[in-house]
Each structure stands twice: as C-alpha cells, then as structure tokens.
Amino acid sequence: MQKKAIIIGSGVAGLASAIRLSLSGFEITLFEKNNYPGGKLTGFKKGNYFFDAGPSLFTQPENIEELFNLANEPISNYLEYDAQAISCKYFYEDGSIINAYTNPQDFANELKTKLGEDASKVISYLKQSEKTYNNIGTIFLNYSLHKIATLFSAPILKALKAVKPGFLFGTLHQLNAKHFTNKKTVQLFDRYATFNGSNPYKAPGMLSLIPHLDNNIGTFYPKGGMISIANALYKLAVKLGVKFNFNCLVDKIITENNKVKGVSINQEIFYADVVVSNMDVYFTYKQLLKDDKKAKQILKQERSSSALIFYWGIKKSFPQLELHNIFFATDYKKEFDSLFNSKTIYNDPTVYVNITAKCEPGLHCPKGKENWFVMVNTPANTGQNWEVYQQQYKKNIITKLNKLLQTDIEPLIEVEEVLSPLTIESKTKSYMGSIYGTSSNGKLAAFYRHPNFSKAIKGLYFVGGSVHPGGGIPLCLQSAKITSKIIEEDFSIKI
Ligand SMILES: Cc1cc2nc3c(=O)[nH]c(=O)nc-3n(C[C@H](O)[C@H](O)[C@H](O)COP(=O)(O)OP(=O)(O)OC[C@H]3O[C@@H](n4cnc5c(N)ncnc54)[C@H](O)[C@@H]3O)c2cc1C
Known about the structure:
This protein is α/β, with parallel strands linked by helices.
C-alpha cells in the first residue's frame, strides 16, 4: 500500500519536501494555516503597487531546477529568471558608492578604483571563498550533520582536513579585517553574516564562503518577482498530486509508543506514516508536541535577527538605484551590539532597499514610479515596544536616505505597509520573529542546529529555516533534500 506523508506548512521547504516525497512514492497531504502557499516567500498588492513581502535575493537557482529535473518537467513552463550584472549597490555615509559586480574581476577593479583595495586580494578572497564552498559548504548543505555515518564518512573527513584554523576559530570580521586594508571593504564582506541573520563579530570565518554565491556565481531575478518561485513550486506540487489544505492550522502531532501516527486539526485526526514539520522547530515542540523541555533546549542556540520592513510605493524613479541597494551604518560594530547584545534600536541602521520595478518597469507599479521594499535588521522580539520602534526606525531610515539620495523621501511615499517582528511571527509562526531561525553566532553553530529528524519519535522529520542547514531559500531547499533522503533510507525506498 502507498505510504502516506503529512507536511505541516507550505514554506519553501514544505513545498520542496512535498515535491520530493511525492516523487519518492508517498501520498502527500499538506496542511497550511494561511490561505496561500509559500510562507515567508509571498507578496501582496496595495494600490497600484505589488511588493514581494519576504525574501528578495535569489541565488543558486540550480536548487529549484533540480526539483523540476527530478519531476521531468521543463522549468521554463513554470519559472524564468535572469542573471544580474550587479549583486548589490553599496552607499556609505561619506558618499562612497560601490557596485558589487557579479563578474569577480569587475568587482575587484571597482574596489581598487573606489577604495584603493588591492584587486588581487579581492580575487584571492573570492577564490578562497569558492574553495571553502566546494570543500565544506557542499558537505554541510547536502548531508545531515547528525548521522554518525555522515560525520565519519570519507568526504566529511576530507572536508574537515581542508579547513584552515582561521575559519573555525576566528570570526568572519577577524578574517575580513586581516585580509583587506580598507574598512569599507571589510564592512562589505562582513555583511554576508546577515545573510542568515548573524553577527559578523561572532559568526565563524566559515561564512566567508557566502560571497562565492553572490560574486562568483552571481545573483538572479525571477520574472514576476520572488513570488514566482513559490508559485512555481506550488504548481509543480499540484501537478504531482500533492493535496493542499489551506486555512488548516495543525494543533497536534499524534504519537504512540514513540512513533508518529498523524496530526490533528480541531480534534479531527489525519493518519500518516511520516510527518514532516515545516513549522519553526521551537513551536513544533512547544505547541504540537507539548514538550516544553525540548522546546527550551532549542533556545540554547541564539535566534537569528528579525527585521522591520516598510513597503513604500514611491511616486518617482531613482536612476541611481539598482535592484538591491545597501545604505551602510557608519559604525557596524555598534549596530550589531544593539541587534544581539542590548537588543535595542540603533539610530543609524544599515538600510536595504529592494526595487523589483528596476527589472520589470511597469509590471509591479506604474512606469516612472517604484515599489520600494525597505528593510532594517532588528533584534529578535523579546518584548520591545515595536509600535514605538517602528516610528523611530522610520525616522532614522528617512534621515539616512534623504542624506544619501539628496532627496526628501517622505512626500514621495504614496502607499505604505509594514511588517514587524510581531507580524513575522504571527504570519508564519517563526518564534521571536526571527527571519532565519537560529543564528550562526558561534563556532559550532552549524552542529547545534536541530537535526532533520527526531531522535525520539520515529517517523517525525523537520525541514525549513529553523533546522539544519539553516535559513534562506537555498538552505531551506537543501533541508528538504537532506530530509527526503533520510526518509527514503528509513523506509528503504530506492529511487
Ligand atoms: C523579510 C524577510 C526577508 C528575507 N530575505 C531573504 C532573502 O533575500 N533571500 C533568502 O534566501 N531568504 C530570505 N529570507 C529568509 C527566507 O524567507 C526563509 O528562510 C524561508 O523562506 C523560510 O522558509 P521555510 O520553509 O522555513 O518556511 P516559512 O516560510 O517559515 O513557512 C512556514 C509555513 O508553515 C506554516 N505553518 C506554521 N505552523 C503551522 C501549523 N501548525 N499548521 C499549518 N501550517 C503551519 C506557516 O503558515 C508558513 O506558511 C527573508 C525572510 C524575511 C521574513
């Protein structure tokens, strides 16, 4: 008889798990509390403007392509995307502006011309980044770190041997400060710690593998905006026969003799051989398994940062801006101290502005206008007064943008919507509004992240940003791959 799997949540990892397990022969039922698929990867319209609500940076499309290849479906029928020439445009308080080209030599030349950085040092950094990614990153992204067989396998041992001590024992900031001469270059490369909500002054040098994705391989823009990724995965899952149930909040995972039996929704029970939770692992233990002890253990690892996002419909276009723009804080160290230590507001925050109208003028808002996604990193929610913070952050953001763009921004805002740590938590059940689950603020953070399976309950598995290998679309997609492989092994399924 066909084995049944239930998936809790249709975040990007839930959707990818549904696709993979369906191809492994499971009958899949997915329950989603919202009335749309995608979790954080969603969008909305306000007035004449469309906004991607969550993720805005798209790297490693091969993770998505792989799902379509497995299903034997041409991806072009579902999703199209273009490579970008500039991964991000950086603005500094002193007026310096850097285009981070996705061509490594162009990027190195830009840093030499604008900041006097030795171009060969930029190239050697990016080469090392590629090496680290190929040696270590691929192991981390493709295997469970919680299976003895993996830890002692030949590729892992080879990978660990290739790690330079500085990568394990130093922080990302220390590594960057040692390599580059200009503080602005150091700040630019420190920023990569924020790609999974971490602090460059605490996160390991190992995160220096991330620039390989941005600046060697390059970044992409999915046509129609980031929401097209969620729509494509949803369409593929439907085609494969996945049964979606929206507006369905799973309230319990049912177990018997340490084995999963199914889930319940409003006291109705749904049985399955396998349950995959795409819900934040803290809430999975706390709310669905009522296991306070285990939930508390999860919190031993620091949560990632959260964010405040202002979605602004701007009635003017800014030719000096790109798809991705960063307006850096003057004192980065102080900003991270306030994010992770004092957990308070910082008056000169780094501001990120994403504008999809740059790639498809006229699609997401009228021509001559721009849809601004304006984000600042904030501490994860520990009870701060977000109403007050929101007003203060808005003031600080506008002050910064007015200065660096030499324009009075506020009168140009004709539409506004806001997403806060509180609404991030309520919309997707992400504990403390953390956008990437747990942070990498520690040398062994990668090993402390929750495994993709339950050691205590047979048949229970976990995917998504709060478990191994971590947050961000590429990693969430990999969590689905790792988990599906474990399930196939557990059920002796041969593909
Ligand atoms: C503002 C913002 C910006 C970001 N920027 C980027 C970026 O540029 N690039 C990038 O790669 N990543 C980015 N991220 C991170 C990325 O969005 C996430 O890591 C990823 O989308 C998380 O996917 P997930 O599979 O963990 O599930 P989530 O998106 O967290 O979805 C979980 C789903 O499960 C559902 N659910 C939870 N509990 C239940 C239950 N009990 N019953 C039924 N359903 C339930 C929720 O409703 C939700 O739909 C950003 C995130 C945010 C919020």
